[in-house]
Amino acid sequence: MPVPVILGGNVRVVPSGKPFRVDGKHSVNYDVSPDQEALLYYKWECVSHTNPDDKFCAQGELSHRNEMVMPAARDGDRLTVFLSVSTEHSPWIRAKQEIIVQDGGYQINIECVRNCRNTINYRSTIYLEAFCEDCPGRNYTWKMTPGPRNKKVQIDFDRETLSSNSKLIIKKEVLVPGDEYQFVVWRTT
How far apart are CA 76 and CA 166, in angstroms? Predict the structure, then answer.
């Protein structure tokens, strides 16, 4: 089964006035072993929620590659980018990423380094890392937002994680099976 993955998570802030990349190269195909090529088909689309004159998103299907460059957007624009993936024998599976455009924003991406399946193994550590190419300095603050029906609604970053600015390691058995979590990172001064 194919699983679409958009680098940077479900919500992302990008700087205004600069083109930015959306990246689906970490999408996986669970029907093949990890050492085999995934053989995925890609389809990118987007919706502009704040700019009715946005001609780029109005095109429909934008690309069939595993990544693409979005054109520069204005401060305050909000977009939703959709990545659909399929294989020769599967239906299209879709993921989305909300894009918030801000003056002075930075392109910070979160990448899962270890224990990265769509359903994680809560008995193993989870290793996330933030990357920013254009940030002046590398000081970050992490936040966890729980799903609406979660048993675990907050995380004690001092006791339940090992974090050092760009790296966040969530200790074994901290997260609860069946719960959903969203991790976000901000650049701090």
Answer: 26
